[in-house]
Amino acid sequence: MSVETGGSLQSLRRTNQERVLGLLLRRGAMHRAEIARQIDVSRATVSTIVNEMIERGVLVQVEVSAADRVDGRVREQVAISRTVGVAAGLDFTLDRVAVHLSDLEHRELISESVGVAADASADDRITAAAALLDGALAAHRLVREDLVGLGVGVPGRITTATGAVGPSLPGQPWAGLNVRTLFEERFGQPVLVDNNTRLEAMAEYLWGAGRRAPTMLYVTLTSGIGAALIVDGTLFRGALGGAGELGHVSVDYSGPACPCGNRGCLIQKAAAPAILDQLRPLLGERATIGDAVAAARSGDRASAGVLADAARVVGQALANVCNLLDPGRIVVGGPIATAGDIVLDAIRQGIERHAMATVAASTEIVRAEFEESTQAGARGGAALVLQEAPHLASVLRRLAR
User: How many whole angstroms separate alpha carbon 273 and alpha carbon 288?
Assistant: First the structure.
């Protein structure tokens, strides 16, 4: 009987250790009292766990700012030690790969990116990423064994259960490949894989404009239009990983056919190619969306009008999302969003016109803080590791040493 009791107590202690570590991985440095509240155990239990892990070098006490002091008293926070490891993110776009390293207290260590050829194979891209990651680690006297997890972002629809990229992107380097398996074999570390948009959303949730919002919808406006929903820190991916295809919501059922098989999709009205089709006679055949935004911000009424018209259609589509999900905060990113209030105000107008009044009034529309999409995706890869903690077992193994 005593053996069973001892085993039960040991199991409970390990469970509580996991809960404390998991919370600190997701939230960063916290006060002991807040840890106790969040995992619903006594402060004495938390203090025992924290003190033991401080002695083992897994946790450290950290300084608090004046704003975190109560009645002038210092309330020490605890965080996971850098010696336990770091979280890494890699993000791939058409012609770049980016890396981001974060310690387990959620502090940025390094963010870098390099160019790759637009027609580079998946293997060539992985080779470039490996060199970039190893260089970032070496800059902080770290090696791959110090990684507690790697979050990888690629374009396309990701099958959540397997980490494979769907065949919906013919000609793309990742189409049909199991990206999770490729990276785990190459790097020898736990890997999470998701699409670029979801990783950008995670970066905004953990460190940017969506910081700690209970429910947040991220929308990116670029050559495509994607979305990602985060509820209580968890990404909503859908049954097979296909959630977030906002660009293929129909806004004109009698509109032109879209390659997806639908008609009158949002991307045909509001994505970068549709905007540039209208503005190239004015801005020139080689005009980019950056040129359109710059012209609008400098006072060109035609450019501002086309951007605003497109954004109002985005707002119309988002009104339906707001009625259905009531996200509370919508963070808008991507190069089109760099037009600022020209775009954000028009999105608000679209939502206010088409959403239920109470829902529209309670929905906050804000601009993303991380505008450089590749770096945002790499940040989000590290954020995904911290939030979803597939590496918690490795942290506990180090704890047991």
Answer: 9
Relative to beta strand 30-31, strand 225-231 is unpaired
Helix/strand/coil percentages in the chain, nearest 5: 50, 20, 30
Q: How big is the chain by its Cα radius of gyration, in Å?
A: 23
**For 93-147, what is each residue's pLDDT tens digit?**
889 999 999 988 888 999 999 999 999 999 999 999 999 999 999 999 999 988 8
Q: Detail the DSSP E strand segments found in 45-180.
A: 59-62, 77-80, 86-92, 96-103, 108-115, 147-154, 158-159, 164-165
d(CA 37, CA 273): 50
CA angle in degrees (0–180, nearest 5) for 327-380-168: 80
Q: Rounded distance, CA 33 to CA 43, Å?
A: 6
Count how many Cα atoms sit within 13 Å of the Cα of residue 324 in the half-sphere of its side chain. 7
The predicted-structure confidence for 222-234, as pLDDT tens digits, reads as follows 999 999 999 988 8
